[in-house]
Design goal:
Elements: H1 19-35, E1 37-45, E2 51-58, H2 66-83, E3 91-95, H3 106-111, E4 116-125, E5 128-139, E6 142-147, E7 152-156, E8 160-165, H4 169-178
Parallel strand pairs: 2-3
Antiparallel strand pairs: 1-2, 4-5, 4-8, 5-6, 6-7
Helix pairs in contact: 1-2
């Protein structure tokens, strides 16, 4: 089966991937959706026996548990096996994004507004390739940050190479509040 994966995703509501990671994202996203999960990120690590890492969220907003990772691993492993996009033996790793999660979709930028993040850009904006600041949310194709000097910076979502929440007391407190039983 030939996979035609996009060069990268320009939809700010979807994670941005390139190359083989984009092909795998295209391959697994429909199955994840049917199982009640969303793709946060695909990463391929290593060369000889690469690990395909899938970070997932539940569509119902509940926390990811071990059972979720096992269910997704069994189903998605079979999907990847059948399509065979890897030229070598590989390992599948399914996980939650964690507390200090990557910000890969517009909704992540909005959900974690008020928390600190580190952002690496593909092309420098305002003379900067790396910035750290408080997430102020995202609209259309732009995300906003308040920098340490109090100024605000807007960055194009399609120019974000990597963005990740920073582990802070405020983030830990917010996470404890989110995971309390209702």
């Amino acid at each position: 089966m030939a996979l035609t994966g996009r060069l990268f995703c320009l939809d700010p509501d979807q994670p941005r991937h390139t190359g083989l990671e984009a092909r795998i994202a295209d391959l697994v996203a429909p199955s994840l959706d049917s199982l009640g999960y969303e793709l946060v990120r695909v990463a391929i690590m290593g060369r000889d026996r690469p690990t395909v890492q899938l970070m997932i969220d539940r569509t119902d907003g509940e926390a990811i548990g071990i059972e979720d990772c096992e269910a997704v691993s069994h189903h998605i492993g079979a999907v990847i096996d059948v399509a065979d996009p890897m030229r070598t033996a590989w390992t599948l790793e399914v996980s939650s994004p964690g507390i200090d999660r990557p910000l890969t979709r517009r909704k992540d930028w909005n959900r974690f507004s008020g928390h600190q993040a580190r952002v690496e850009l593909e092309v420098p904006e305002q003379g900067r390739r790396r910035v750290t600041g408080v997430v102020l949310g995202a609209e259309q194709e732009m995300a906003r940050l308040r920098l340490d000097d109090g100024s605000e910076m807007a960055v194009r979502l399609d120019n974000v190479r990597r963005a990740k929440l920073l582990l802070t007391e405020a983030l830990l407190a917010a996470t404890r509040t989110e995971t309390r039983p209702h």
